[in-house]
C-alpha cells in the first residue's frame, strides 16, 4: 500500500511538472496575447468603397505614422466597410462600442453619425473625416472632432466659367438626406448667380436612383454638371460619365480621383492630405495630449486645380493659359 502511494505521488509530481512546463509555455503565449490586448484599438468605419474615401483612410494611417505612432505597438486597426448601407454602418459602430475600442475613426457622414451615437454612452472618442458641414450634421459638440472637406465652391464656379465662357446652367445630382450635399447645394445656389449661372438640381434618396436622375438632368439641357462628394453619386460616377460623354456634357469633379475617372477638371482638395490631418489629430488623442472634445474640427484650407487633358480634348474644351500653368494633370 505504501509502495502504491509512493508511486502515485511520483506520478502526480511528474504530471504536475509536465503541466508546469506546458503552463509556462502557455503563460508566455498568454503574456503576448495580453500585451496585444493592451494595445489600443482604432475602429475605422468607412461608409463605402471609392477612391476618395480610400484616400482619406490611407492618409489617416499616414498621419498616425508621421506623428510617431507604430501600428502593432501603439495601436491596432479594426477596419470595416459599410458598403454604402446605413444599417451596416450602425452595426459596425455598435460592434466597435461593444469591443470598447480606444477610438473610432469615421470616414464620411453616415459612418460618423453612427459612430457618434454608438460611442456616446461609453464616452469613446470619435474622429471623423470627409464631412463637409459638421455643424449641419450635428457632429460639432461632444467627444468628437475631425476634418471637414468643405468644397471650394467659388473656385469651382470660377473654373467652370473660365473653361465654358458661354455656359448658363450647371446641373448637380445629390442625396437629399446627406447634410453635406444639402449644404453644398445651398452654397451653389447662393453663389452661382454671381458667376452668371443657374443651378439645376435633382435629388435622390438612394444610389439606385442616381443613373435615372442623371438621365433627367441631361434631358434638362444643362451646359455641364458639377459633381459633389456625395457618396451615392460618386459610387456610380463612371456610369454617369458614360451618359454625359454621349451627350457631350462636361462633368466637373470635386477632387483629383473624380478627375482621374474622367471628369474634365476640378478645383478640389487632396483627400490624402485631409486624412493625414485627421490622423495627426487622432494621434494627439491616443498620446493623451488632447481630448476630442477639446479640439474643434478643422477644415482643410488649400485646394488645387486638377485637369484631365484627354477628357477636355474629347469635349473640345480649351484651357486658358493661366489655368493650364498651375493645373495638375490627373488623368490615369
Short account of what is shown:
This protein has 332 residues and is of the alpha/beta class. The chain is built from 13 helices and 13 strands.
Fold blueprint:
Blueprint: H1 2-37, E1 41-46, H2 51-66, E2 76-81, H3 86-98, E3 103-107, H4 109-119, E4 126-131, E5 144-148, H5 153-163, E6 169-175, H6 179-191, E7 198-204, H7 210-219, E8 224-226, H8 231-234, H9 237-246, E9 251-252, H10 256-261, E10 265-268, H11 271-287, E11 298-299, E12 304-307, H12 309-314, H13 321-326, E13 328-329
Parallel strand pairs: 1-2, 1-3, 3-4, 4-5, 5-11, 6-7, 6-8, 8-9, 12-13
Antiparallel strand pairs: 10-12
Q: Can you put this structure into words, describing what you see?
A:
The protein is an alpha/beta fold and 332 residues long. The protein folds into two domains: 39-149 and 271-299, Rossmann fold (3-Layer(aba) Sandwich); 153-268 and 303-329, Response regulator (Rossmann fold, 3-Layer(aba) Sandwich). It is 48% helix and 18% strand. The protein is built from 13 helices and 13 strands. The protein has helices spanning 2-37, 51-66, 86-98, 109-119, 153-163, 179-191, 210-219, 231-234, 237-246, 256-261, 271-287, 309-314, 321-326; strands at residues 41-46, 76-81, 103-107, 126-131, 144-148, 169-175, 198-204, 224-226, 251-252, 265-268, 298-299, 304-307, 328-329. The strands form three sheets. The chain has a six-stranded parallel β-sheet, with helices on both faces. It has a four-stranded parallel β-sheet with strand order 7-6-8-9, with helices on both faces. Strand 6, helix 6 (179-191) and strand 7 (198-204) form a beta-alpha-beta unit. Helix 7 runs parallel beside helix 9. The longest helix is centred in the N-terminal third of the chain and has 36 residues, at 2-37. The protein is elongated, with a radius of gyration of 26 Å. The N and C termini lie far apart (87 Å). 44% of the residues are buried. Residues 1-35 have low confidence and may be disordered.
Amino acid at each position: 500500500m505504501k509502495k502504491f502511494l509512493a508511486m502515485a505521488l511520483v506520478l502526480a509530481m511528474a504530471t504536475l511538472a509536465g503541466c508546469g512546463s506546458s503552463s509556462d509555455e502557455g503563460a508566455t503565449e498568454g503574456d503576448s496575447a495580453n500585451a496585444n490586448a493592451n494595445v489600443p484599438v482604432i475602429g475605422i468605419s468607412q461608409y463605402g468603397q471609392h477612391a476618395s474615401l480610400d484616400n482619406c483612410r490611407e492618409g489617416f494611417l499616414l498621419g498616425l505614422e508621421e506623428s510617431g505612432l507604430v501600428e502593432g505597438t501603439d495601436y491596432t486597426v479594426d477596419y470595416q466597410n459599410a458598403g454604402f448601407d446605413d444599417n451596416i454602418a450602425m452595426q459596425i459602430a455598435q460592434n466597435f462600442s461593444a469591443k470598447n475600442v480606444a477610438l473610432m475613426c469615421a470616414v464620411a457622414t453616415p459612418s460618423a453619425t453612427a459612430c457618434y451615437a454608438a460611442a456616446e454612452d461609453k464616452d469613446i472618442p470619435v474622429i471623423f473625416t470627409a464631412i463637409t458641414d459638421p455643424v449641419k450634421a450635428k457632429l460639432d459638440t461632444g467627444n468628437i472632432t475631425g476634418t471637414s472637406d468643405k468644397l471650394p465652391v467659388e473656385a469651382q464656379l470660377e473654373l467652370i466659367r473660365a473653361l465654358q465662357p458661354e455656359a448658363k446652367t450647371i446641373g448637380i445630382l445629390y442625396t437629399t438626406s446627406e447634410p453635406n450635399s444639402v449644404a453644398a447645394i445651398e452654397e451653389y445656389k447662393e453663389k452661382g448667380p454671381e458667376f452668371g449661372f443657374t443651378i439645376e438640381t435633382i435629388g435622390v434618396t438612394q444610389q439606385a436612383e442616381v443613373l435615372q436622375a442623371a438621365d433627367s438632368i441631361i434631358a434638362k439641357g444643362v451646359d455641364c454638371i458639377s459633381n459633389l462628394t456625395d457618396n451615392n453619386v460618386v459610387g456610380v460616377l463612371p456610369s454617369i460619365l458614360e451618359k454625359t460623354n454621349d451627350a457631350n456634357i462636361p462633368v466637373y469633379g470635386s477632387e483629383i480621383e473624380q478627375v482621374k475617372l474622367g471628369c474634365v477638371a476640378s478645383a478640389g482638395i487632396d483627400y490624402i492630405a485631409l486624412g493625414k490631418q485627421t490622423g495627426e489629430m487622432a494621434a494627439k488623442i491616443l498620446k493623451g495630449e488632447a481630448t476630442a472634445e477639446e479640439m474643434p474640427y478643422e477644415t482643410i484650407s488649400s485646394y488645387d486645380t486638377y485637369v484631365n487633358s484627354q477628357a477636355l480634348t474629347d469635349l473640345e474644351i480649351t484651357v486658358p493659359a493661366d489655368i493650364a500653368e498651375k493645373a495638375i494633370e490627373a488623368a490615369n
